[in-house]
Amino acid sequence: MLRYALxxxxxxxxxxxxxxxxxxxRAARRATRREAVAPLVWAQRTxxxxxxxxxxxxxxxxxxxxxxxVSTVQVGLLNLFVQHTSCGLTINENCDPDVRGDMEKxxxxxxxxxxxxxxxxxxxxxxxxxxxxxxxxxxFGASLNVPISDGRLALGQWQGVWLAEFRDFGGDRRxxxxxxxRGFSR
Length: 186
Hints:
Blueprint: E1 3-8, E2 16-21, H1 26-35, E3 40-49, E4 52-57, H2 59-70, E5 73-82, E6 87-93, H3 97-110, H4 130-140, E7 143-149, E8 152-153, E9 159-169, E10 173-183
Antiparallel strand pairs: 1-2, 3-10, 4-9, 5-7, 5-10, 6-9, 7-8
């Protein structure tokens, strides 16, 4: 079996290429085989959240959806992706609900709906809350990665996953949850 090493060119630092590396010594090959016993875990689930304006703590729903798979992962990542353009995901305070309300107020001041009437926005046909929602969605982002460590999501003590809905009545929002990682050794 050939191993490959990634080398950066000194002439063109942005360029990279692969070259064949010398084979591993026999003892290293045996160790590599032993390490390969840990299974790779890939799983995908969908969580649906009602889309009413505001920041919602969705960590419990995420945990419920992927707990069985996450518990089998020693080290990995949970990728969360919201399949919509007028809401977003973020990790923030999980304890005091006032933080979520304050965030909504701050975002409404950063991107006010009044911009639909003063000529700032051209895309205004879907309602006063639509274009501001697109801007806020881009500020937050549509995806997050959460580390998985020893069968648990490695969020900090005061951290939680939020779905931020930026429309008054956004409808149901789907969050695609993809678990990937190395399982515990057998």
